[in-house]
Design goal:
Blueprint: E1 9-15, E2 18-23, E3 30-31, H1 33-49, E4 55-60, E5 65-67, E6 69-70, H2 75-78, H3 89-107, H4 109-112, E7 117-121, E8 124-126, H5 128-134, E9 138-142, E10 146-148, H6 151-154, H7 162-170, H8 173-182, E11 186-187, H9 188-193, E12 199-201, H10 205-219, H11 224-239, H12 242-256, H13 261-271
Parallel strand pairs: 2-4, 3-6, 4-7, 5-8, 7-9, 8-10, 9-12
Antiparallel strand pairs: 1-2, 10-11
Helix pairs in contact: 1-3, 5-7, 11-12
């Protein structure tokens, strides 16, 4: 996976069709502009290249921290390098808005993937870290994890995803507002209680990484058509009414039900063997290459 690993991202394939993406910018995974751009490009490139990835796990290489959030010493990480102070306020604001939308698009890359992305966090998950995991499909946390929507302590509202995702994820507007207004730290147990997590794993980095990778491995054995379709339809349901989603699902599955994966599942079940599913997309530039 050398092609996809970068200066601060380590990418490996611990199981067939499963990627492990590790954040690795010492000392605390603070996100500079280069870092968040690289993070977004990674997921988009995997999809564009047509690699047969069926699940991915995002972790940190550092035992005590997932990410400290933004690198406050990097102007680009805050979008301030997009502000042209030689022009009037409106034009400077438009430039700033463009940078913020690029930032949102990069951090939201996991949601655009046709395969599930699992966040496995441990230690401190601060500011941007909450934005990042909110855009992932599934969130596991080690028992030693703690979280904070920290942006208000910098002097701004969180603007990369937390305030958009968390009300939908938790269903608790009161608590989301409390956490955003106060920037207080909350534990893995509280994050689990409010629905931000699907599992709290006893231990720390190694334990939560192992659990998340095993989940990804199991998901990778399922029909890619079924899993990717489920992901797409769940996201659509979040953003639409029940009648709209049911109508959309009917149209979607009218086509998806023609998949060969159904016959392959039946064959494998009857023969008591492992199903062998085709990739969602035939690789173009890397046809025939392994991950």
């Amino acid at each position: 996976m050398d092609k996809y690993s970068t200066k601060w991202l380590k990418v490996s394939e611990p199981f067939p069709h499963v990627l492990h993406v590790e954040l690795a910018r010492a000392p605390v995974n603070a996100f500079s502009q280069e870092f968040w751009q690289s993070y977004g490009r990674l997921f988009d490139s995997i999809v564009e290249d047509g690699l047969d990835v069926r699940a991915a796990v995002v972790t940190s290489v550092f035992p005590k921290i997932f990410t400290a959030g933004l690198d406050l010493g990097d102007a680009g990480s805050l979008g301030s390098d997009g502000a042209d102070t030689t022009r009037d306020g409106a034009r400077s604001s438009l430039a700033m808005r463009k940078k913020l939308l690029e930032f949102q698009y990069a951090i939201g890359a996991p949601e655009r993937c046709p395969f599930p992305v699992i966040a496995a966090v441990h230690g401190h998950v601060i500011g941007l870290g909450v934005d990042m995991i909110s855009a992932c499909d599934i969130r596991y946390a080690a028992a030693d994890s703690n979280f904070a929507i920290k942006e208000v302590d910098i002097g701004l509202a969180a603007d990369i995803g937390s305030l958009a995702f968390l009300p939908h994820i938790t269903g608790n507007h009161s608590l989301v507002r409390e956490l955003a207004y106060t920037a207080r730290t909350f534990s893995a147990a509280e994050a689990d209680k409010i629905g931000l997590l699907s599992k709290v794993v006893p231990g720390s980095k190694d334990e939560v990484t192992k659990e998340a990778l095993e989940l990804a491995r199991f998901i990778s054995t399922k029909s890619p058509i079924a899993v990717s379709g489920s992901k797409h339809l769940i996201t659509h349901a979040r953003d639409h009414s029940v009648p709209d989603n049911l109508a959309y699902t009917g149209a979607w599955n009218a086509h998806a039900l023609m998949t060969d994966d159904i016959l392959e599942n039946l064959r494998a079940t009857k023969a008591k063997t492992k199903a062998n599913f085709a990739p969602l997309k035939v690789p173009s530039r890397f046809a025939g290459a392994k991950l």
